[in-house]
Amino acid sequence: SQTIHQWPATLVQPVGSPLSLECTVEGTSNPNLYWYRQAAGRGLQLLFYSVGIGQISSEVPQNLSASRPQDRQFILSSKKLLLSDSGFYLCAWSVRLAGGEQYFGPGTRLTVT
Amino acid sequence: QKEVEQNSGPLSVPEGAIASLNCTYSDRVSQSFFWYRQYSGKSPELIMSIYSNGDKEDGRFTAQLNKASQYVSLLIRDSQPSDSATYLCAVTSDTNSGYALNFGKGTSLLVTP
Lengths: 113, 113
Known about the structure:
The structure holds 2 protein chains of 2 kinds.
Chain A: E1 3-7, E2 10-13, E3 19-26, E4 31-38, E5 44-52, E6 55-58, E7 64-70, E8 73-78, E9 87-95, E10 103-104, E11 108-112
Parallel strand pairs in A: 2-11
Antiparallel strand pairs in A: 1-3, 3-8, 4-5, 4-9, 5-6, 7-8, 9-10, 9-11
Chain B: E1 4-5, E2 11-14, E3 19-25, E4 32-38, E5 45-50, E6 54-58, E7 61-66, E8 71-76, E9 85-92, E10 102-103, E11 107-112
């Protein structure tokens, strides 16, 4: 069966510090991978998606970046965090080119102070 | 702008009753429709998917889709206190980047004993 992992689970970082969040998927190959953010009182917002190794598309302009160094690994990064980067970061996977179900990882709750 | 609209609630129903959750979407070419359940502080969990007009039943859950009216709903029969959560409606199509999901902001459901 497929499993998706995210770490860390929670993170408190000062403004201006760097960020690295990691997501890995087990039990499937060639998945579509997504990063979403859920800010307090707001819906889930797509940040990045990837259809393959090294292929990253960004949906919103921001100070975040993403990378996919391996087929089942997706990383979200920032060089300098802003207060507005606080939120619940969720990684999700789906079967490539299917438009089907997406499954979410447990999430990382980020607080920027 | 592709929009997915849900009443924020809270929707309060007594234990054993039917809970009815509604969602409308603006993108007429939407193809895939999903309901996620999100407990407070947790990540969204997929509970239903529906792709064609009509009803789809899975246990106590029934999803209903009407593409002509751009409307999707979720019925929960024999509601239990453990069903108390926020229910997210999500929609996608092949015009969405990487088949990413467009989410509504969710409806909060409270099932009272």
